[in-house]
Design goal:
Layout: H1 3-16, H2 20-31, H3 35-41, E1 53-56, H4 66-83, H5 87-90, E2 92-96, H6 102-115, E3 120-122, H7 129-139, E4 143-147, E5 156-163, H8 173-182, H9 195-200, E6 204-206, H10 209-220, E7 234-237, H11 244-253, E8 259-261, H12 287-296, E9 300-304, E10 311-316, E11 322-324, H13 327-341, E12 348-353, H14 359-366, E13 370-374, H15 378-392, E14 395-401, E15 405-408, H16 417-434, H17 438-449, E16 451-460, H18 463-479, E17 484-485, E18 488-495, E19 509-513, E20 518-523, E21 529-538, H19 546-570
Helix pairs in contact: 1-2, 4-6, 4-8, 7-10, 11-16, 13-14, 13-17
Length: about 575
Amino acid sequence: MDTTGLRERAEAWRKADPDPETQAELAQVLATSNWADLADRFAQDLEFGTAGLRGVLGAGPNRMNRAVVRRTTAGLARYLKATVPDVTSRGVVVGRDARRLSKELAEDTAAVFIAEGIPAHVFPEPVPTPVTAFAVLHLNAAAAVMVTASHNPPEYNGYKVYWGNGAQIVPPQDVGIADAIAKVEPANQVPLLTPAQGRAKGLWRDLPEDVGNAYLRAILDLRLHRKGSDTLSIVYTAMHGVGGAWAVLALKEAGFPRVTPVAEQQQPDGRFPTVRFPNPEEPGAMDLSLATAERVKADLVLANDPDADRLAVMARDASGKLRLLTGNEVGVILGHYVLTQGTKRSRPHVVTTIVSSTQLGEIARGLDAAYDEVLTGFKWIANRALERTQKEGTQFVFGYEEALGYTVGTATRDKDGVGAALVVADLAAWCEARGTTVLGYLEEIQRRFGLHVGAQRNVTLPGAAGAQTIRAIMEAFRASPPERIGDTRVSAVRDYQRGEGGLPPSNVVAFALEGGGRVTLRPSGTEPKIKYYFEHKETPAPGEPLPQARQRAEARLATLIDAFLALARERGQPA
């Protein structure tokens, strides 16, 4: 290791860092000659991609900090001025969640924009990510930045970019922005204006409550049943995030008076004191929600992640036990509900991702709806919906990804956990009026379209060494794809890196299995993980109790998972 060169780069960064806290942090690392820590902090610049930025808070170019955000914003501002002629009249929306440093990062973002002559429409308080996405369209802004790390642990933060169409950026925008960032001067030389200076020039524009009220009206219009329920009991958790007040108000406005928030998690708190990993999918994250639901005998549990763009759902099964639905199950229920109970459209269009269940496609074909599978990430769903609407006149009605992301209609062009919570409650009230339940409705769908069960396994491999291991695993499966996984034959291999499937190249490999199952593997775009997705399809026998068919399907899925993980270990995954 070239420690002399590393020290020189670190000293140069420290001197240009505008934040005294991260300056001091880096000085301490230098004083202790912690070369491994320094090497990781300076291994690369935090990569700007189609998810924007996301990383651990700390000093250095491979961390999230004020220096990185100021340079990123300067690059974004200059790219916008070069590519969007009216950006200086339309402006850019700036929103933030309630994480550590979110306020400072959002203020720095707005300060750089206004110094570049671009008006900044700033949310003065933390807001859900879908509210920021909504504001782009509502205000006809040229772009938006949302400071958030979504459901990552408390030491993370991030920077998400939306384009003027309301969707997250896609290539070539991300590449153009990254190139512009690379040309930006050191952080302490990036021009800034204070909020007071910006307000005096009419460039810093604090957004009024009217924008949030317009968002609430828009998602209330997404309901199909529209009758609410005085008897349906709902427990809601904000997971220490920013969705709490928004979701509870929306549910009550929609006619659901029996909403019980999880008190310990209702207020924004970037420390996330009751959950280590504030993701509803993680083990233990829903424990307080479950306890609250049993105490009040709730019929339904709705959980947002900290920036409220995702939604988890628990509902009672035939035995009265609360069960956490998978993201695919919620996606299938919502997709079927919208297609069958929504306004009849000549060419309804639904979209999901290549790692989500194939069942939405079967439903769409059965109901004569247009259907697409796109790459992972809601940016692809929103942009594909816009593309087909413009070219073919389809009408987008629903999109989802299995990682608890859903959007109904076009109120927002990103996943919306608050809007989705409202529609799930509306669906539950519709089921209640029909004399059934949410899980009863799911069973109706599965009897008609097949019983699809799925699971995901994530392997965390941090640091540069972990990234190398992930690359090695992906290349090993590409070089030598299995002919069988356990007892199941692989019927087709699709390598999305080669642009197969008619999609942009992406580091994803999928193995289609005989009988309709699928195994897909890809590195995470926001965390140091490799992700494996599994799906098995079972056909219940006529008259067979569905729990019996589900038990058989889950057993076969578990066998498939074990067989694949054994193959992954042979190809370099740590045991």
